[in-house]
Write a structure and sequence with these properties.
By secondary structure, this protein is mostly beta strands. The protein contains 1 helix and 5 strands. Strand 1 (4-9) and strand 2 (17-23) form a beta hairpin.
């Protein structure tokens, strides 16, 4: 069973906020919250390096949240997905719909 062994705040030059999470398998993941234009808040997780470079296109989950979600929610979601207790959700904003 995978567990969180380390977290650290992500340094960003953009308005995206996030934390880096290292799991017991020594893999790093970035959990970020963002607000795309014309949409509400989203919580996203993808594989990362220890410095915060994200692996775009390989998201584990991305879904809209009600309000500004806490990073703890994302850490719980990541742990459940990696331990195969849940399926990952990918709900990208649909810019063509609006």
């Amino acid at each position: 069973m995978l567990e969180v062994i380390k977290t650290k705040e992500m340094k960003s030059t953009t308005k995206v906020e996030g934390v880096l999470v290292q799991m017991s398998n020594k893999e790093w993941y970035a959990i970020t919250r963002m607000m795309p234009p014309r949409f509400g808040w989203y919580l996203r997780c993808s594989p990362s390096t220890s410095t915060g470079r994200l692996s775009f296109g390989n998201e584990i989950f991305m879904y809209p949240t009600k309000g500004k979600a806490e990073f703890e929610e994302g850490i719980k979601e990541l742990t459940a997905i990696l331990n195969k207790q849940k399926e990952g959700r990918l709900e990208h904003p649909d810019y063509n719909q609006r």
